[in-house]
Amino acid sequence: MVGQDQAAVDGSLLDDARGLLPDLVALRRQVHRHPELGLDLPRTQSAVLEALGGLGLSVSTGERTTSVVAVLEGARPGPTTLLRADMDALALTEDTGLPYASEFEGAMHACGHDAHVAMLAGAARVLAARRRELAGRVVFMFQPGEEGDGGAKVMLEEGLLEHHGPVDRAFAIHITPMVPSGWVTSRPGPLMASSDEFRITVTGRGGHASMPHDAVDPVPVACEMVTALQAMVTRRLPAFDPAVVTVGRIATGTTWNVIPETAVVEGTVRTVSDATRALALEGIERVAAGVASAHLCAARVEVVGVGYPVTVNDPGAAAGALAVAAGLLGADRVVTAPTPVMGAEDWSFVLQKVPGCMVFLGAAPPGVAHPAPNHSNLMVIDEPAMAAGVALHAAMALRSG
Question: How do residues 331-348 score in pLDDT, each as one tens digit?
Fold first, then answer.
């Protein structure tokens, strides 16, 4: 009988979420048309505040960033659940041709954060309508600056976990077109990699292109570093605790017949453990210094930006979320991921402080054999999948255990 009652609750949550789908789509497309970058998202913040209006929530905004925090008090004592949506876009020009495509060249919601906003706003509506069923409180976290600016870290520093009483558990959804629509996948332990950005400045001595022996050319040295870094990964780091080192940019020179004085190599290093993260960063320093020294150059290595830690799901929280998803969507639509994903997330900062997890929600567009992935200028999603996300957010807040 208990199982039948729970199935009825799960079904009604899905019905509620599906009933909101036209509004979810409208909000998602509004945000998608007007993407904003980084920590300052005034237009997106305004859309969120409008969507939360009239729900009886206690709403506050950030000081150092345009975040929104909304709190829903339940009808009786219970745990405090933190639910999160990131809001920022990517510095990317959209080429989908959609009627609601980005109106701003050089900015696009190519990672699904527009859908995250719509899903969490929808969950706030569903839970506000079920306030009498809610034990404890829900903290809705609308966060700027996930794409490299560490917005979650800023919100934590502004007191996210202290201003509303202790937070007992935390949950987030990330949408992906690489998983069938309406499916959920996650895993206990490491889910996503750490990410650090590095810059190597190689300094030689400039000169005439015809007389390299009278100069110290940093260009071939920079090129040698790129291949040496890949050798370092395969020879010095454990194969079963992986790292990915990618050089994404080499910048040097001003014209074709001048040997420049400097060359700059920039890239990222991603790992799924703190131990390998430390080994990789130390290895980059060692390789850069050694290769540069061998060719009479100097090398300065900088770790730039906000480095994200490994996103580690609490094992109990991940198991609970997958069980809730199975009850809500069907066990055949829930998959335990065999390995972590080497992308990174600043949700990791929250999970360092609160037991919780993140799950991936599939949104592969129907009839597309090879969907464009997150961070692609061609990324599109199956918008009806957002109903599953709304219902899952709500179910995670309503669960007693």
Answer: 999 999 999 999 999 999
Strand partners, 138: 72, 81
Same domain? 241 vs 377: no
Single residue among 290, 308, 326 that ends a domain in this structure? 308
Q: pTM to 2 decimals?
A: 0.93
Residues 372/375/378/382 CA torsion (nearest 10 deg): 60
**In the block, residue with structure tokens 């990915």:** 244
Domain count, the chain: 2
Cβ-contact 4, 381 below 8 angstroms: no
CATH assignment at residue 223:
3.30.70.360
Q: Which residues are catalytic?
A: 308, 383
Cα separation, 384 vs 369, whole angstroms: 18
Q: Copy the structure tokens of residue 344.
A: 């990174």
Q: Are residues 82 and 230 in the same domain?
A: no
**124-174 pLDDT, tens per residue?**
999 999 999 999 999 999 999 999 999 999 999 999 999 887 899 999 999
